[in-house]
């Protein structure tokens, strides 16, 4: 442990003994759900720092966008023009994610890619069976 780490620990311990952490909002309550659960564990700390600084990595933004398109697709009639447009958009976003190493990791780690493919395949089979 470095000198800086020991100094920081000493300050934290001193503040805790003085009761400075006793009246913090949410004290004694469970922590909120981790919004970075889909991010590989080795990237979470860095992503949290970036998020707290107001920066959202492009891969995370693409993941959010893909979820939104998926949600819209689930509420759309499978054979409609809107469903075809949303399906194309989902494929494009997934392609964009697959082109970056971090995006591939996000797709691979969460099994997200397989779920998207299954949903798109189901959407296609519904639209083909209606013809």
UniProtKB/TrEMBL annotation:
It holds the Pfam family DJC28_CD. Residues 7-74 form the DnaJ homologue subfamily C member 28 conserved domain. It comes from the Bacteria. Signal peptide: none annotated. PANTHER family: DNAJ HOMOLOG SUBFAMILY C MEMBER 28, OS08G0560600 PROTEIN. This is DnaJ homologue subfamily C member 28 conserved domain-containing protein.
């Amino acid at each position: 442990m470095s000198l800086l780490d020991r100094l920081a620990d000493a300050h934290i311990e001193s503040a805790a003994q003085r009761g400075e952490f006793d009246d913090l909002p949410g004290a004694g309550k469970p922590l909120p759900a981790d919004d970075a659960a889909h991010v590989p564990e080795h990237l979470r700390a860095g992503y949290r720092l970036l998020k707290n600084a107001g920066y959202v990595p492009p891969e995370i933004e693409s993941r959010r966008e893909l979820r939104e398109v998926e949600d819209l697709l689930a509420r759309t009639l499978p054979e409609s023009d809107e469903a075809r447009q949303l399906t194309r958009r989902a494929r494009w976003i997934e392609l964009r994610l697959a082109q970056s190493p971090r995006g591939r990791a996000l797709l691979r780690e969460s099994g997200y890619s397989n779920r998207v493919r299954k949903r798109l395949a189901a959407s296609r089979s519904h639209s083909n069976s209606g013809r």
